[in-house]
Specification:
Keywords: Hydrolase, Metal-binding, Zinc. By secondary structure, the chain is of the alpha/beta class. It folds into two domains: 134 residues, Urease, subunit C, domain 1 (Roll), CATH 2.30.40.10; 320 residues, Alpha-Beta Barrel (TIM Barrel), CATH 3.20.20. The protein is built from 15 helices and 18 strands. The protein has an eight-stranded parallel beta sheet with strand order 6-7-8-9-10-11-12-13. The chain is globular. The relative contact order is 0.15. The model has no long low-confidence stretch (mean pLDDT 94).
Length: 464
């Protein structure tokens, strides 16, 4: 399988590569075996073959690595877009726990909700996602089945919580919770064990909901299980003021210390939010190799301060999360835009008051803002690194999986932009513009699902 056209990638923070007229070859297992300009001798030799199956990406369009969503609550897509008027701990009681409990009681509804979620993720260009599920094993196995069938890379977490403000939605004890996790891990692996390794897209994730819902015994057991079985871990860290105060009041220390004490900060761990982390906490996360899922929209609703993205990018692995339903949009493009907006507001505060990042002399301090190119890196390559995806994910390089989205920006036949994009100079001149950083930025700013003509994961076309 061959593709010929323009490529866009962000191999490093702040770096945007536009690779014009490249030829890609994808093998039967969905890996790239050739990445080279179409006019190179090797490419020309391949193109001369009459037997190749070639997809042409026309001028005004490009291929881009799929997006990574590092933090999403799958059952909460039942009601996302509502209920965001309460503080975090109240919102969990009133909305989140009820929705999760409802899906645990209704497997037919759970399957319907999860199929819709998978369709929406693909529609929005997400190829890999880290998912929080519910406390019931069977419901999480449904989630894993649906994601595998949809062709998405999905890391599925059965929630662990032996403490709850909702008596009907809690596990009976730390030991019962640990036994349930062990069973889920075994059965989740069994779902894909019959497949070749490159087709095993779903993995289980150790998922203590957050410190307020987990006893020390449960956290200790989860840490030991993760270490013994080399399992991924995901949770929430230093998210909201009321959550942080609860932990300090009940446990006497910050939640990062509790996670670290129980071996839950590892190179296999992703911690969501981290809005209240300081430089010392970031240093600890760096030492442990732990990544952060930055969720700018839900942070705006539930955290009393913005996440220090600029500082974190100098220290740890960071990717983006939608945090449905704490965030109301499944679209990583929205998360990219919001990450830039929040960072610019932090920079404005630094300039006016010197209140961010400990800077008291704004004219001499480093800018706290990030730009659109840096956010595109977060959504693609950086997210892939944070998720520990297969080698090369987020890049066009030989050996990497073909996890790609096909973006249409400009229609060369009509000289018109696609979707919400307009190119007035092209209309007036009658000449099609070549792909440029400005054109990619316009898509970044204004693009939507109308610009996405196809999505592939591991070489399999999922839509378009």
């Amino acid at each position: 399988m061959f593709f010929r056209g323009d490529l866009v990638q962000c191999p490093a923070l702040g770096q945007l590569d536009i690779l014009p007229d490249y030829l890609l070859e994808v093998d039967d297992s969905g890996f790239l075996t050739h990445v080279s300009p179409a006019n190179s001798p090797e490419s020309c030799k391949k193109l001369d073959s009459s037997s190749i199956s070639l997809t042409i990406i026309p001028p005004g369009s490009f291929l881009l690595p799929t997006f990574c969503d590092l933090h999403l609550h799958a059952p909460q897509s039942l009601y996302h877009g509502t209920g965001l008027h309460r503080p975090l701990m109240e919102w969990l009681d009133e909305y989140a726990f009820k929705a999760e409990e409802r899906l645990d009681a209704d497997p037919i509804l759970a399957r319907r909700v999860y199929k819709c979620l998978a369709e929406r993720l693909i529609e929005n260009g997400t190829g890999a996602v880290s998912l929080f599920g519910t406390i019931k094993e069977e419901t999480n196995l449904i989630l894993a089945e649906v994601m595998q069938a949809a062709g998405l890379r999905a890391f599925v977490g059965k929630l662990s919580m032996d403490i709850s403000s909702r008596p009907s939605y809690v596990e009976a004890s730390a030991q019962e919770s640990l036994s349930a996790v062990e069973s889920f891990v075994k059965n989740c692996h069994a779902l894909v064990s019959h497949l070749p390794e490159h087709k095993r897209l779903v993995e289980p994730v150790i998922t203590p909901r957050f410190v307020p819902s987990c006893s020390d015994d449960l956290l200790a057991g989860l840490g030991a299980m993760s270490e013994a079985k080399s399992l991924r871990i995901q949770s929430h860290l230093a998210e909201a003021h009321d959550q942080i105060e609860w932990v300090k009041r009940e446990r006497g220390v910050d939640d990062i210390e509790i996670f670290d004490r129980h071996a839950l900060l590892t190179p296999r761990t992703i911690q969501a939010h981290c809005t209240f982390v300081d430089s010392q906490s970031l240093s600890l996360l760096r030492t442990r190799g732990t990544a952060i899922a930055h969720c700018p929209l839900s942070n705006a609703y539930f955290s009393a301060k913005p996440f220090p993205l600029h500082e974190a990018l100098q220290t740890v692995k960071v990717g983006l999360g939608t945090d449905v339903a704490g965030g109301y949009s499944l679209d990583i493009m929205s998360a990219m835009r919001q990450s830039v907006v929040v960072s610019r507001m932090r920079e404005g505060s630094r300039i006016m008051h010197g209140t961010e990042g400990g800077c008291q002399h704004s004219e001499t301090c480093e800018s706290l803002s990030v730009d659109w190119k840096e956010s595109l890196y977060l959504a693609t390559r950086s997210g892939a690194l944070a998720l520990n995806l297969p080698r090369g994910c987020g890049l066009f390089t030989v050996g990497s999986p073909f996890d790609v989205q096909y973006i249409r920006v400009f229609d060369a036949e009509t000289n018109l932009g696609v979707g919400a994009l307009d190119f007035f100079d092209a209309v007036l001149s009658g000449k099609s513009p070549g792909l440029s950083p400005e054109m990619v930025e316009k898509w970044w700013s204004l693009g939507d699902v109308r610009n996405r003509a196809g999505v592939w994961v591991q070489g399999i076309k999922l839509t378009g």
